[in-house]
Amino acid sequence: MKLSIERATLLKAVSQAQSVVERRNTIPILANVLIEASGDHASFRATDLDIEVVDRVTAMVERAGASTVSAVTLHEIVRKLPDGALVTLTDDGASGRLTVEAGRSNFSLTTLPKEDFPVMATSEYTSNFTASAMTLRRLFDKSKFAISTEETRYYLNGVYMHVAEGDGGQKLRCVATDGHRLARIDADLPTDAGDMPGVIVPRKTVGEMRKLLDDDDAQIAVSVSETKVRFATPNVTLTSKVIDGTFPDYTRVIPSGNTRKLEVDAAEFAKAVDRVATVSSERSRAVKLALDEDRLILSVNAPDSGAAEEELAVAYGDEKLEIGFNAKYLLEIASQVDRENAVFLFNTSGDPTLMREGNDTSAIYVVMPMRV
Q1: What's the pLDDT at 283?
Q2: For the stretch 13-44, what's the b/e string if a residue is b when 16 or more beta carbons lie within 10 angstroms of its beta carbon?
């Protein structure tokens, strides 16, 4: 195999591959990227047995073939090469080495047999549809902060993507929760997505898939089966197993009877929470909200480190209320607001609180209160 490829193109392909491979694994081949060259293209394939990414790029192929080499080492080499360099990759098939040449730089890397590289079995996808990168980015970006990190509740370690009834008919919906906060984001249902099975997309897959969504104009081909999900652009295909579990009935924890309404500038609110939380002990990070007519007092009282208080002018016309929250949860939810105003809907100091952006119900968040 012998091919030449522009450094920036190669770096993009190899960086996607090296982020998928597991740093610590007992199967050496899983640390490698499989490079396959033919015609005028080269493909770079990496897997951790749960996710597989294939990046197909244009290359000058002198001799078709395939080779596998350490993804991390290749990435580090290409990253350190000068901008605009033309990189030549050569594997003569006999030496067990891949040569990387660029200008006066020359590297010789050990390879492993390409036959040992595991290729993820193709799945029969029951649903195939196309969604814009912008739509998918909004769905996953606004929900992923609420993914649980508790390994014991593995069915919460991802984003639940499914078809649900929303305002004005069926929607493509993404939900994530860790039991303390919940995010539910809706988008218009793409054509042909109506029969999609609900799947839990793992946290790592959400992170990797996010790299495909930077181009606002891009259309992403989405394929879903009971066991796998695939996101594809013309050049990159990301295939992943989904979490084998049942996502809980999240609708039961979304309050519907919260009537006390607070409207506040989202950016100002986030900055104020951040300021007062500075004195709180890291363990609890509890912030108290004291609501009175058109006034909100945020306070923290940490006996071991001090106290802080800040007042904000807000729109609030209901009876007085004092309620406490984890500062980190408030900050994460407030940072999701794209519009100017955040609307909080409270019931009592012990009940879950609902938050949305203005009157928009396509993105809603639930956060559990804390005792303060």
Answers
A1: 64
A2: bbbbbbbbbbeeeeeebbbbbbbbbeeeebbb
CB atoms closer than 10 angstroms to residue 213:
22
Q: Find all residues with CB under 8 Å of 166, minimum gap 6, and list them.
A: 173, 186, 361, 362
198 — pLDDT class (breaks 50, 70, 90): very high
Write the CA distances from 289 to 298, 309, 339, 352, 356, integer angstroms. 5, 10, 22, 14, 18
Place of tokens 């990046």: 55
How far from 68 is each of 19, 35, 65, 117, 213, CA to CA, in Å? 16, 6, 11, 8, 27
Say if CB 11 and CB 76 are below 8 A apart.
Answer: no
CA atoms within 13 A on the CB side of 171: 19
Contact (Cβ atoms closer than 8 angstroms) between residue 167 and residue 362: yes
- pTM for the model: 0.92
pLDDT digits (tens, 9 = 90+) for 110-146: 999 999 999 888 778 999 999 999 999 999 999 999 9
What is the spatial distance between Cα 238 and Cα 9, in angstroms, rounded to a whole number? 18
Neighbour count for residue 274 (Cβ, 10 Å) = 14
Strand, coil or helix: 114: helix
Please state the length of the chain.
Answer: 372
CB 265, CB 349: distance < 8 Å: no
List the structure tokens of 100.
Answer: 């990387």
Predicted local confidence at residue 119, as pLDDT: 87
Return the pLDDT at 248: 95
What's the token pair of residue 371?
């005792």
Using CA atoms, how far apart are residues 191 and 201, in angstroms rounded to an integer? Answer: 21
Which residue intervals of the chain are DSSP H helices?
Answer: 7-20, 71-80, 133-141, 203-210, 266-277, 327-334
| Packed helices 7-20 and 71-80: angle between N→C axes, nearest 10 degrees | 150
